């Protein structure tokens, strides 16, 4: 029965260091490409004459990557992580080249969709790839380091994008990916072991189509320019979601196996992942808008004020992965992480109420948020993998990542609509002063909602096991 255990559960692969470095490089590039264009978009809109379609440059990447995440997870269950990583990196590389050479907004949107189709698999596949390289106790620590690198790169994206636009051109925000991705692809082809294909495993094509339709219609419905069509898209998304659930229950090879959610620890971990997505994107989207528009900061200066968030994510992810390696306090870590996230948004609301002009105070308030999110990243990965049978390990790893991306996208869209409504109802007087005051007042209930969501996550975390559970696949082998 030991033969069913993952081969990396016994010994580490001799090419671990260069392959893990390639994983880090690709994960950093995928994270950067979610935010690197934020400071370059005004220049892109001016040069490509497409300001009215600017938001689609972000949405195309987000939609493609969110839809791709569960598909990569399921395909990795069938074929292993190595061939899927090759496909993901190749698509990401192709999209980067197409983006750098784009001469119109339409070309750039298509390039971003191709890039997202590749980038969406990198988080899931690198986490799975680590398990192909090293024994499980060490894999948890390395997966925590990957989470820290991802969070850090997400926050440095605006800084890097601003520097490239200022000293080179916006095209280099895409071209910078090419040599790194090409080198990483070569290293992974050379050094990552390929596991044998699992016989009898197939991919549920109908389920994949229904899931893609559900996610796309939901993301489109929450865009601000959806207008009256948003209710039609939400209804369509609900119908497709019901069809997807029905198909998954009857399929022999589901994309997202319903049996995973029969394990409370997996369900709670997925919910915590969604909470982390809402909290992270609420901070990184709304705070820079206020710092730049209301307080008059340059994009680079506003990005530096999020440095405590970066530092918190990085530090906490490393420490959390170490604490969870053996018999770590899962419940305590999760409760503490969600409580820190709730505290951060309560503090932000208080600063916007009492001292809205203090950028340093706002900056200090995001440190607990970073510490909370950083603790959750390795915890969610560990729980999802330990509560899944071997044949579903890819889907189990991918599902919380997909939900985190979806939670961030849908949450920010809904909260952004509420914030815009709050600001519109409070405008009056000179434009700049009125906006600053209206934003400070309007963002308080928005951050209050996020704090409440994090508080609910604290309650959910109380139902987690007290200590790290034994891997389900090991129990099955025994």
Which class do the helix and strand fractions yield?
mainly alpha
CATH topology of the largest domain: Growth Hormone, Chain: A
The number of helical segments is 18
Question: What CATH first level of the largest domain would be assigned?
Answer: Mainly Alpha
- How many domain modules? 3
Largest sheet: none
Order of helices and strands: HHHHHHHHHHHHHHHHHH
Fraction of helical residues: over 70%
Rg over C-alpha atoms, rounded to the nearest angstrom:
22 Å
Provide a descriptive summary of the structure in words.
Helix 5 packs across helix 16, helix 11 packs parallel to helix 16 and helix 13 packs parallel to helix 15. This protein has three domains: 195 residues, MFS general substrate transporter like domains (Growth Hormone, Chain: A, Up-down Bundle); 51 residues; 222 residues, MFS general substrate transporter like domains (Growth Hormone, Chain: A), CATH 1.20.1250. The radius of gyration is 22 Å and the shape is globular. It contains 18 helices and no strands. The N and C termini lie close together (7 Å). The protein is an all-alpha fold. It is 78% helix and 0% strand.
């Amino acid at each position: 029965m030991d033969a069913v255990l993952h081969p990396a559960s016994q010994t580490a692969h001799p090419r671990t260091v260069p392959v893990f470095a390639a994983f880090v490089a690709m994960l950093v590039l995928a994270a950067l490409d979610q935010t690197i264009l934020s400071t370059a978009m005004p220049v892109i809109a001016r040069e490509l004459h497409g300001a009215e379609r600017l938001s689609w440059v972000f949405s195309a990447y987000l939609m493609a990557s969110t839809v791709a995440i569960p598909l990569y997870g399921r395909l990795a269950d069938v074929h292993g992580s190595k061939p899927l990583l090759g496909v993901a990196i190749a698509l990401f590389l192709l999209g980067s080249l197409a983006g750098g050479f784009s001469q119109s907004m339409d070309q750039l949107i298509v390039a971003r969709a191709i890039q997202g189709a590749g980038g969406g698999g990198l988080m899931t596949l690198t986490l799975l790839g680590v398990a192909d390289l090293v024994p499980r106790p060490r894999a948890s620590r390395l997966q925590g380091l990957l989470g820290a690198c991802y969070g850090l790169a997400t926050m440095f994206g605006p800084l890097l994008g601003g520097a490239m636009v200022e000293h080179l051109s916006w095209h280099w925000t895409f071209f910078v990916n090419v040599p790194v991705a090409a080198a990483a692809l070569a290293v992974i082809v050379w050094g990552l072991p390929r596991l044998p294909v699992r016989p009898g495993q197939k991919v549920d094509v109908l389920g994949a189509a229904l899931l893609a339709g559900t996610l796309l219609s939901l993301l489109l419905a929450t865009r601000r320019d959806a207008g009256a069509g948003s209710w039609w898209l939400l209804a369509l998304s609900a119908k497709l979601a019901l069809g997807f659930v029905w198909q998954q229950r009857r399929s022999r090879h589901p994309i997202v196996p319903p049996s995973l959610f029969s394990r409370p620890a997996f369900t709670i971990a997925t919910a915590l992942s969604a909470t982390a997505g809402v909290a992270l994107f609420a901070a990184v989207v709304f705070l820079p808008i206020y710092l730049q528009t209301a307080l008059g900061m340059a994009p680079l200066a506003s990005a530096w004020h999020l440095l405590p968030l970066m530092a918190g994510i990085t530090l906490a992810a490393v420490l959390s992965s170490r604490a969870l390696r053996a018999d770590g306090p899962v419940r305590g870590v999760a409760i503490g992480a969600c409580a820190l996230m709730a505290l951060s948004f309560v503090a932000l609301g208080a600063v916007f109420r009492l001292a809205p002009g203090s950028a340093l105070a706002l900056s200090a308030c995001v440190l607990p948020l970073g510490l909370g999110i950083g603790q959750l990243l390795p915890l969610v990965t560990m729980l999802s993998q330990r509560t899944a049978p071997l044949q579903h390990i890819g889907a189990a790893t991918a599902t919380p990542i997909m939900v985190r991306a979806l939670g961030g996208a849908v949450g920010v869209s809904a909260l952004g609509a509420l914030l815009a409504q709050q600001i519109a109802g409070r405008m009056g007087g000179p434009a700049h002063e009125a906006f600053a005051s209206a934003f400070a007042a309007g963002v308080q209930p928005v951050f209050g909602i996020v704090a409440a969501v994090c508080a609910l996550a604290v309650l959910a975390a109380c139902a987690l096991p007290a200590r790290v559970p034994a891997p389900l696949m090991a129990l099955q082998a025994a």
